[in-house]
Specification:
two-stranded antiparallel ribbon, four-stranded mixed sheet, about 60% helix, about 400 residues
Length: about 400
């Protein structure tokens, strides 16, 4: 029993270490507004530390006392990407970084102008319906876009009234980082104004919970209301890791780190590469898997392709004769010159090889008589008078054709 008490004491100490560190100066500022004068008449239910909502008091707090959540995975990913070129790290105390986050929230590709305009019009028409949710020092766990819109309206439309304060629930001082992320995930799944941020951003959330906070796939799945299975969550984390690998390799190498908004072909292309690699695992070496992944990266990096071309690559690989043809032509699949495999000339060449292999695959599915007829029409365009004597290359091709025709005759 004595040893068990010691273990429990250690667990308590461990939990205390996990308590989020707050900006005490801001905590004191927020406390000034947690009075009966600023309290709303009725509380607001929040799924705090579990799926079952519990009531929280709501207070009116000036927007200048609230700040954006730099730990929000979606915000952080885009912010880090923008600051990387400046060789800066996100700093919540940096006013310029706060302004940059506001721009991301208002203009981000992941959110879109339509969703932002819709929410802005709703706030102007009906006002704030649900309170934002803040940490003890005023960082928003929920309501970052509303804060961005309020700040924008205050700055650009000063005649608009009612946008200097936000109604907010303030979380307890003993909140841990795990508590905050759990709440954020639950709200993300059920929020009234939830935006379809896309699979990339959801995968970023899952990876943070699993890799940084050591959450199990089971726990993450439960937080999503089992909308995402454990297998799906694991797969999404593997895909976002692959996307990071691609962005780091994209020329100029290293400059596109975490620039997820620049991915024109997006999640579906990488999902197709993932499925192709999983299929290839059964009978391929590690080198073969690596070269096939690089070939997929070349398809995504090309300006001439769409995500459908990754599926074409997958189809070619599933055909023995088509994949054999592609592997003979492709330097990437042979593992040659991998130091610059994403340069423009290399990509154009490989996209041409893929197109030729896919055409070959499609032709192989046509009735043999139709293919033979097309081959005859092409052969008939050769003028006999243009053939020079001693053309050894033509002779070799004709000999191969003769042998092929003989085998075909035996077959029919």
């Amino acid at each position: 029993m004595k040893e068990m008490f010691k273990f429990q004491d250690l667990m308590t100490i461990s939990e205390k270490k996990m308590v989020k560190k707050w900006d005490n100066r801001k905590v004191e500022k927020i406390k000034k507004y947690k009075t009966s004068k600023n309290r709303r008449d009725f509380p607001f239910n929040i799924p705090w530390k579990g799926a079952k909502p519990i009531p929280f008091d709501v207070y009116t707090i000036p927007i200048d006392e609230l700040s954006f959540n730099f730990d929000n995975t979606r915000i952080n990913a885009e912010l880090e990407g923008k600051l990387f070129k400046r060789r800066e790290k996100p700093d919540p105390k940096n006013i310029k970084h706060q302004v940059l986050v506001q721009q991301i929230l208002l203009e981000s590709k992941w959110i879109g102008h339509y969703e932002t305009n819709k929410l802005t019009e709703d706030l102007q028409k009906r006002g704030q319906l649900d309170p934002v949710i803040a940490t003890p020092d005023g960082v928003l766990i929920d309501g970052n876009r509303r804060l961005a819109i309020f700040k924008y309206l205050q700055e650009h439309e000063p005649e608009s009234k009612g946008f200097t304060e936000l109604e907010a629930c303030v979380l307890p001082l003993d909140s841990t980082e795990s508590d905050l992320k759990e709440l954020e995930m639950r709200l993300q799944m059920y929020h009234q104004f939830q935006v379809a941020y896309g699979e990339i951003n959801i995968a970023l959330e899952f990876r943070y919970l699993h890799n940084d906070l050591s959450w199990t796939y089971e726990r993450i799945s439960e937080i999503t209301g089992n909308q995402y299975t454990e297998t799906k969550i694991e797969k999404m984390i593997e895909i976002i890791d692959m996307i990071d690998e691609y962005l780091k390799l994209l020329p100029p190498e290293g400059t596109h780190r975490k620039q997820y908004a620049t991915l024109d072909k997006g999640w579906e292309s990488f999902d197709n590469i993932y499925r192709m690699l999983k299929w290839s695992e059964k009978n391929s070496s590690k080198d073969t898997l690596l070269f096939r992944k690089y070939f997929g990266f070349e398809i995504i990096a090309s300006e001439e392709t769409t995500y459908a071309d990754v599926r074409k690559f997958y189809s070619v690989l599933r055909s023995y004769i088509a994949s054999e043809k592609l592997e003979k032509m492709s330097d990437t699949l042979k593992g040659k010159y991998l130091g610059n495999f994403l340069n423009k000339n290399r990509i154009e060449k490989e996209i041409g090889n893929l197109a030729e292999s896919y055409e070959f695959l499609q032709a192989s599915k046509i009735e043999p008589s139709r293919v033979a007829e097309q081959a005859w029409k092409k052969l008939d365009t050769i003028k006999i008078s243009n053939i020079s004597k001693g053309d050894r290359s033509l002779r070799v091709i004709l000999e191969k054709m003769i042998k092929k025709i003989q085998r075909m005759q035996e077959q029919v």
